[in-house]
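Changelog excerpt

This revision adds worked examples to the README so contributors can see how folded entries look when concatenated. The first example is reproduced verbatim below.
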Amino acid sequence: MVTIDCHIHLGLMPSQVPEWWLKEQFQGWAGSIDAEAIIAGLDDAGIEVGLVQGGDIRRTTWDPRHPDERNVLTPNDFTASEIAKYPDRLYGVIGFDPLRDIRWAVDEIERCVEELDFRLLKLIPTYHHYAADDPRLDPLYEKCLELDLPVMIHTGWTRTINAPMEYQRPVQLDRIGREFRDLVVIVAHLGHPWVDEGIAVVAKHPNFYCEFAGWSAYGPELVYESLSKLKMYGAHRKVLYGSDNSDTKALYEDANRIAVERDGEPVLDDEEMALLLGGTAARLCRIPA
């Protein structure tokens, strides 16, 4: 079964990503991420396929110490040009700021799917200063339903200072699940630190899934506890592998080790681990398994 990382960022510094933002977001690290760097990271992690996203947070992301550097934009066409260097290994994720122009955003979804063969839409509410259930976004969800396109939605905390925490809660996805029942929604980051809320919405809605991107900083203990809670709700087969540009495979191996030590059996069996590492993402995003 193919292995897939569903959460990889792309961007060149400083033309697409200013140094000040990378340092704010990643506490000192700064550097460009192109297709070659992504493939090297996938190879190091032993992952075969990556879903790659750009994005646009120019409207809302700024630093008063760098007033002229608001160019946080990696366009979808650049993403397409990079993934074209590695066909069958890299697939595109649509990234944009929908509130710049909702009608344009709907058309851009259609263009990216039909012309560029992108496989996923990524929304980042806290970075764009809206709630995920804002009715202004409903045309996007309707277009994704029409195109059978999954939507990944950022939930949870971020170091970006201009990202309002009021737009980070997983509970804001509940209306989407109620009113767009056939829409596939991937709860990015499982809403950390509102993890129980994330687990609740994933368990409640049949077409909701989740991933643990960025959790390498939190350690395997929290992964074990969260997988155990998902399993208690019968939702542990709805987890995808996402790295946030870091090798996090060991988190799941260590979570299973902790489960064996405490419970006498792994929290994920071999089949469930294979689904997490790529099987479910392949099915949702139409990637050859």
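The second example, added in the same revision:
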Amino acid sequence: MKKTVNQDLIITNPPRKIELIDDIVYMSPAPSLKHNRIMGRINTAFDIYLRGKKCSVYMVSNVYYNPDKPKNHIIPDVAIMCEPDKFKPNGYYGVPSLIVEILSNNRKDDIGTKFELYERIGVKEYWIIDPISDSINQYILVDGKYKLLEAVIYLLDTDIEELEEQEEYKAVITPSIFPDLDIALSEIFGD
């Protein structure tokens, strides 16, 4: 018996993330393969560390951040959530402790709109990862404003050898909310 395919069911465009921030719809492009790989690796590093602890890590999950506007939500690439009572079947109703966004074609949303939102709602730590330069900007909330804590970049061993001051190169990133966790940049960006 020959099987047929219903042409209406074929998806020609990859799915997009749709977020509602302050009643404005934002659509993110489907992530690249490198974006997905980085997101998975960050998630794995946090997942291993957080097993058996109060906090949890999630990729691309709904976060309802404003109880006054219950439909407003964000979908961070990776989010650390530390209040177990705020989980419901369709998402998290609260403010994550740490959010990681990996830049894609909508860079201005992560660097501008989301940066300002996360600062305003009180996300303690925000990482912006640039997959083009293999770099991470790590921001922490200080007196209600984000302060750049670290700017790190992944370098190959041959690049490190060419540095004049090799001992100053930082090959790990450490979340300020988990000071005993060092995530090697090679685990995030390496092949």
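Reviewer comment on example two: The helical segments are 33-50, 107-121, 157-162, 185-189. DSSP finds four helices and 13 strands in the chain.
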